[in-house]
Amino acid sequence: MIPFDDRDGLIWLDGKLVPWREARVHVLTHALHYGSAVFEGERVYDGRVFRERDHAIRLQKSAEILDFEIPFSLEQMAQGVQELIQQNNIPNGYLRRIAWRGSEMIGVSAQHTRIHLAMAVWEWPSYFPPELLQQGIRLTTSDWVCPPPNAMPTASKAVGNYMIRTLSKHKAERAGFTDALLLDWRGNLAEATGANLFLLIDGALHTPTPDCFLNGLTRQTVIALARRRGIEVIERHIAPSELAAVGEVFLTGTAAEVTPVGRIDDRSFAVGALTRQLMTDYQDLVHASADDVVI
User: Fold this and answer.
1) pLDDT tens for residues 111-131?
2) pTM value > 0.85
3) Of the residues 16, 61, 157, 169, which is catalytic?
4) Strands, DSSP E only, in 63-136?
5) What is the DSSP letter of 239?
6) Do 109 and 140 share a structural domain?
């Protein structure tokens, strides 16, 4: 394992490319103490970030929800992304951008902190081991639940929202599972630790309503791909008991792409034809040569 603070390459930091090991912040940075940061994870395919502008727009919106404004335009970020990919020579990989409050103030109130933005890119293959994509990953239900939107800024891709996901995934891995499945605060199915959930029931795709977790960009893309094939997609609240009627299960996310699920707790599922078709459709789409590939 190569530590992320000791790598070759360049990182885009506040508008400039700097050597990887020199991209640092102070220990009294507000974001480190109070979680005042938002981020995006993006995939690079054939030298181009899939839905780059949509990721940038979501970053801006996430920052607005956390009461700060990113001091770079969509165009400046897009230019920085391309420079970063080219200078690091990463035609296929993963790009992370993060915006945060700086170290000018430490305390709950931090309205006069400087806002920083950094972007980094590196090679990263499949999020889950390829062999698991054949049989499906194994999920276990987490003890943690997605909080209501009036308890946490759930519409923001904020760093603090991910602590319960880290705790959930650690416990799942220790128990021999690949990932964890979170319920929402009402007891309905919600999502995995970093990916949205889809269920095939009686020929239609059902997916939880994203009212207390992110409506993922990959989720939106896969819904469009399914509907393009004439598959009915239903967004609704889904009780865990309904898993008894499910034929196929898969996850969607920028990192996870389209990932089959072979087991949830003690219940097994086949990696079926629809899941495999959408896996293929998604890969065809992200590798399309046209600039406008969003459907």
Assistant:
1) 999 999 999 999 988 888 888
2) yes
3) 157
4) 93-101, 115-122
5) -
6) no
